[in-house]
Every structure is written in structure tokens, then in C-alpha cells.
Amino acid sequence: MEYIDYYKVLGITKSASEDDIKKAYRKLARKYHPDLNPNNSEAEKKFKEINEANEVLSNPDSRKKYDEYGKDWKHAEQFEQQKKQQKQDQQQGNYGQSSGGGFGGEDYSDFFESMFGGGSTKGRGAKVKYKGQDFNAELQLDIKDVYTTQKQTLTVNGKNIRITIPAGVKNGQVIKISGYGGEGMNGGPNGDLYIKFSILNNTRFKLDDESNLHSTIELDLYKALLGGEIMVDAFDSKVKLNVHPETQNGTKVKLKGKGFPIYKKEGSFGDLYITYSITLPKNLTEKEKELIGELAKLRTP
Amino acid sequence: MTTEEFISLNQLSEYYEIEISFFSGLSEIGLIEIQTIEQVPHIHRDTISEIEKMIRMHRELNINAEGIDTVLNLLEQIDELQRELTIARNRLSLYED
Predict the structure, then answer these.
(1) Domain ranges of chain B
(2) Which one in A32, A41, A162, B45 has a CA-CA gap of 20 to 30 Å to A23?
């Protein structure tokens, strides 16, 4: 358990007046308040620290005790006695639940609890009901997994949660599962669980925001010139495609409804865009060179 | 519409030990909707968690109703920018190998 320098936490000196403490606390509280920094666990941690520092330093009695024994708290006999007394008081229910820290179950550091017991050192009027902490989780899925709707069981903080992941969920998309976050305080509602999806795509298809898929396929010179039928890969099937004669390099064709499922629109799909990349033959034989030369002459004015 | 779905401002004010004028101020700038049922001002219970957030901002950060409105607008903008950033990142990944 480490000693916590509450003066440092609030960025003030030991000689700070009550007014200085109040000002420093308010300034930092405005910066790190969880309502102003949603889903920011670092800010939440910092907010708890400054609350704890303020709780101690804004109360003249606890500040005196902290100043006197702070660094040597482990060896102060008197301290231990006070601690025992506090424990007894707590068992008799003399301490109320704090409303100062606000978020999450562990509002005070071990250091604080060793010095001042588990509860708040000062009252604060009515107990404010706090919504529990929101939890954030990231779920990594393969693009093939989100091509169809599926159910998954996740374990979050020891609780098993069965969720349905609708087909077509996007990379970076966040879904909210109400009530599966931290427990509320003073009868407040539980927090929510936010799951961010990270979709891995190792396929040849690129997925855009409109659920369209994009793919580039190689087309040989003669098929591009003369046209004909080819088989191309769609995401989960093969599709027969008619290549028009004299197809140019970079030509894009759209296969309607052969793209990715549209999120929460069952049976609806984006389109598949195929771009032709025309490949030229290599290692030409003498005969081929001769014939291509003939062709070239036909096109020369 | 049943009264069970609503909480009176008097109850809220007593419970949170906060003056009723605070809620009136929030209502005046459109942050909450006060409905009068049998001549008693009420708020809908679905809005309670949002109102609690405003109470915390007021009580813990000394922010008045106008300040809360500004903060909520800015948070909304941050949220929108983060959404756009995610879309832009996804779009960018289309051009990356």
C-alpha cells in the first residue's frame, strides 16, 4: 500500500488555505468529472483520486491527522487505536455511505481506508443515486463471422451475457447492453455495457460503410477484347459474369445484392463492385509476336 | 398517461435537496420537459438518469443551467466527431493494403 500525497494530487502546497483547496478541487473536478468524460476510465480514476484528496484535506480534522501521521501512518500507535475505534463505529452503523466519490464500488484507496476507515468523513446532505459505472469491452470478430447473425456468450466481470450479434455489424460500431455495467450506488440503476466491434478482414473483399463489397479481379487480354463468360467469387458463392467485348482496364461492374448484409435489415444486402484488372500475356512466342504485329498494322492509320 | 410514469418536482426537490427553481431553469432552456398533472409539475421517469447527470454537474461542479446546456451540446459534438472518425478510419482502410 503506497502513501498518497493528497497535496500533490490537488496540485497545492502544504500551506494551502481552505479556499485554495476548494479552488484546486473544483478546477480538477471540472476537468475529470465522469459526466464530462464518458467512457474514459483514466479520467474516472483521476476523479476518484481528487475526490479522496479533497475529502481529507477539506476537513480540518482529517487534514490535521493526515499532516501529522500521513507519511508514518504505518507506525502510529495512536492511529491504530483510532482505526480500531472507527471499525467498531462502522460495525455499529455509525458511518453512512459516501456520496462524494460517486462512481464505481471502490471509492477510496486502501491508504485512505487504513487512515480514515471505509466511509466518508463528512456528510453531504441527501444521498444522490448514482448510475453504476459503464463498462467498455472490445470484441474481435472475423468478417466471415458477421456475415450471418449469430449468438455469443460473453463473460463480463464474472457474469455470462448472451448477446445476439446482428449480421452486418460494422468495424468500430458500438452496441449498448443496458444494465450490464457496474452496480448503481444508493439504489441508482446499474451502468451499461458498451461493446465495440473490431472486425478483422483478411479476405480479398473490401467493405465500405454502405455494406457494399469491392473486389478486383484479373481479366486476360483476349477475354477483355472479345468478351465472354467468367466465374467470379462473391463473398459466399460463385457468380457467372458476362464480360462485354472491348472491356477496358479498370472497368467496374456492379452485382446488385451480392454485397454484405445490411445491419438490422434482414434479407437486405449491399452490392458487390468488381473492378477488372486486365493482364497482358507474357513470354510471347515468335508466332504470337508476328500475329500481334499484324494486328498492330491494322490499327495504324 | 398515468401518474406512475411521472415524478413530481416536489418529490425530486426533496429527495435531492435541490431547489425547485433549478428544475424550472432547466426547463426554460429546454433541457427537461415539465408536465403539469392535476396542477402539479412533474417530469417523466424515463428522463431521470439524464436529470441526475444535470444535478451532479450542478452540485459537484457548480455549473448553472446554461453551463449544463453548453456542456451537453459539446459532449454531443464530441460524440458525433468520434462517430465520424470511426467512419473515416473504416473508409481509409479501404485504400490500405
Answers:
(1) 3-96
(2) A41
Q: How far is A10 from chain B (nearest CA, A)?
A: 15
Strand boundaries in chain B, DSSP class E: 6-8, 35-37, 40-44
This model of the complex carries an ipTM of 0.71
Q: Where are the alpha helices (DSSP H) in chain A?
A: 6-10, 18-32, 41-57, 60-69, 77-91, 110-116, 221-226, 286-299
Q: Tell me which of A35, A129, A173, A205 to substitute to probe the interface with B (most B C-beta atoms closer than 10 Å).
A: A35
Nearest to B17 among A36, A125, A131 (CB): A125
Question: If we measure between CA atoms, which residue out of B18, B5, B88, B86 comes closest to residue B48?
Answer: B5
Amino acid at A111: F
Test A26 with B15 for CB contact under 8 angstroms.
no
Q: Would you state the pLDDT for residue A252?
A: 95
CB A29 within 8 A of CB B57: no
Which three cell numbers, joined as nine digits, stand for A279? 493482364
Cα separation, A205 vs A274, in Å, equals 10
Task: For the domain made up of B3-96, give the CATH fold.
Answer: Multidrug-efflux Transporter Regulator; Chain: A; Domain 2 (1.10.1660)
